[in-house]
Amino acid sequence: MSMIVTRESERQGLTHIGARTVKKDAAALLAGKPLYTNDIVPADVLTLKILHSPHAFARIVDIDTSRACKVPGVVAVYTYKDVPNKRFTLAGQSYPEASPYDRLILDEVVRYVGDEVAIVAAETEDAADRALKLIKVDYDVMEPVLDFTQAKGNPIVIHTEDNYHVNGAWINNDRMHNVVASGLSEHGDLEAAFAECDIVVDETYHTLADAQAMMETFRSFAEIDAYGRITVTSSTQVPFHVRRMVANALDIPQSRVRVVKPRIGGGFGAKQTGCNEIFCAFVTAKTGRPSKIIYTREETLASSNSRHEMQLHVRLGAKNDGTIVAIDLYTLSNQGAYGEHGPTTVGLSGHKSLPLYNHAKASRFAFDVVYSNTMPAGAYRGYGATQGLFAVESAVNELADRLGMDPCEIRLKNLVTPGERLAQYDDNELYSCNAADCLRRAMEMIGWADKPLRQDLGDRVRGLGVALSMQGSAIAKIDIGSVDLRVEETGFYTLSIGATDMGTGCDTILAQFAAEALRCDTDRIVVHGVDTDVSPFDTGSYASASTYLTGMAVLKAAEQLIAELRRRAAGFMGVDVNDVLFDGDTMLAFAPGTLEVPTDGDKPEFSGIYDDVEAIARSYHLAQAAPDAEPVAQMSLIELANKLVAGGDGDCLTAHAAASSPTSPPPFMSGIAEVDVDKATGKVSVVDYVSVVDCGTVVNENLARVQAEGGIGQGIGMALTEDVQYSDTGRMRTRSFMTYKVPTRLDLPNIRVEFAPSYEPTGPFGAKSIGEVVINTPSPAIASAVAHATGNYVRTLPITPEKALFGE
Amino acid sequence: MSGNLIDVAVVLNGKKVTASVAPDQSLLAFVRDHGCKSVKCACETTNCGLCTVWLDGRAVLSCAVPMVRANGHEVTTLEGLQAESADFARCMAEEGAEQCGFCSPGLIMNVLAMEREIRDRSVAQGIEPAMPTEDDMNAYLAGNLCRCTGYTSQRRAIRRYMESRFGAASDDAPVRAGEGE
Lengths: 808, 181
Description:
heterodimer; A: alpha+beta; Aldehyde Oxidoreductase, domain 4; 29 strands; B: DNA polymerase, domain 1; 2 domains; 5 strands
């Protein structure tokens, strides 16, 4: 594996990187143009509806669809008897997926309230709704496992099917004991380290299965193309993974499936898991007719996927002076009924929390992921790190309070610094880290030095609380981002990407990278994505990957394209390629010796992450300003492009480049919450929230800021109001926005965000990620602020008024 | 569906549209069926604000208006306010506040309704229209959910837009993100 390494000096003089470039699709989105999945369905489309299980765990003894089929307008009703008996996973992960193959399109056994029992295909929604009510199902209702803390080793086993499949032994799957995955990573002598400690905080924290609650619910449609292939248009973050899922589920070759991603109304990880694509693809394959499936909000909340509920036991040992010596974390993760993202999410609860306190002499991180008869968990922004950081950061806050230390002071004393090898992060070296600056600046912003942690304001008490966060940037050695960059007639460029803009703006950000490298306006970069038939493979937009990874692929492709353009221009002009410079508009040839030829001596200092990684210096043949010397010949890009593309010298130039990374550089972030707790009602109001982010080089200040503000907004919802509840028979109670309360604009203060950019040498122009790190600070910061205000340490989210006022 | 179909006639974005529909068909379904795809559905429980349209010039949640009630009235969607919404759309775009864009049309309809209401009220009271306060704006728009932005960038865009219409309030100097907020 080779990688490009960039230098901090390059950050000076960037034009497009760091600009507040308006999103390329902004005008169309704000004009309300029909660009989303449900806006572009084919005319004669069948409407699909799903019959969901009313039982948490049951076997279908008999299912009678005869009356439903007779409803006028109903075309077909499908049950488990109609689908291929081949198991697959809906997890959008690189093949071979870490998640178990434990699903069928429809199964004889239903494993949670909301599980799919039958698919109705009808000409109208009305007909489909009427048919749903006429399907008669005889269930053998079984006792469910609803309490995930009782799942491991429970005599009730949730997955006993004989064609269950796991892709790797490292997952430690033990499904006959309801264990999806388990693991352990340790460094140092833990018991010896604890023996040195003066104080140990030993607490258990609990986070819920929050809903991602993107505004556009799950939806997709399928149709058959001129070649008899199935085209699925889906609101998804992972088009290429959906192609694999659909092929696996229908048991057809992947070559028979095409997946198209239009504009997406938000994802937040929800759409990193497949949802209803398999249903429309299946019906279209069966009927030959186009079909669409639009999930309701209720289905999206109660019959799809959510964050993993986790119970986290932390033992945090320290000296009386606040030095953290030992950390022991055990995470129990509730997978729900099917195994999507189970083995991987849990890892982040330790690997993206413990490295903040990398100086600890010893640490241990152990976990179990267990099935239960609740809605399956999947991916949600933060992906386990959110849960882990709530626990570890809360424990650090409790440690500070018990020692009578300032909670910021204790962090500055223990915080990880650049250059360290991270014991709980695959021993990766940390190249860029401004975590301490993030914290210090946030303290200034809120006026930390002049504010008490608790202030009595009469009818309410004001509290201050702090937390830090880290995440990764793409999955090391697994994720891949690739692009095709093509020069077009008249010298504009087409940038074809497999990365998935879901509203975050990656189409625009990747155009900014291309414009920077090619020294042109972003308007000259036409971005296209994603259609699996034409876009280059990309694992998709998740794991905070697009900016860091696909951004690097853009730089590599631009370098290749420029090298080829220079070579062709040199040929036309009859000069040596080393004497040709591209300034963005013109290929300029200079007298030999005028231009500096990059050499190996140009290589930045860099110590390898792994011995087998060769860090290569950028060749510095991006487009660049011309020297003062007079050129001896020149050729405009327009002329060159016209000659190559449309002229008799026809040779359309396309550069293809892929990027993957041996490391996943963490972004860092601080968050300080100032909250008021009403003395009479216990209501917690966030009155101020400040945050400073180190995402490496900020690529688009507006979009980075909105990522941070939006992530914090979601985090505040998780901390205070998003209270997932189940009945004692396993039916989710919070199945609408009436009962599942996402923050409104009355619930959020103006969130104040600043940046403290480090420079990540393995990132494009020094960039790391920002998409996920931003959701992790509110829960621990607000919990600590409430504790300071009321003395009650709330360790089970959300922090309801009752818990704030009376404790748990 | 309940009952027989009824004939309805509405003026949709200035054009008369007639159709036979179920009396309880929602205005939301109706306008989407008639090409107004900017109107979105995100909750079915009148909580999200994405389906906001104007009924006789007043903002309503189209998911909660049955066609029997809309019959004979004037309906306006974002498709019919392209020119009028351009300035606010620009403010949103310049803040990156649209993000996924799915909730934007509903928000735009309600922001323009607020602006209109401020003008109408000031005319009725015979006073100069004034810049709404931050609390006014939050309260008026509370029913417009957004999951991407945390609302802060939207507030910047809304404030900038309202200032361009009503002038800055004296105690509320205009600011952009990162410039003294």
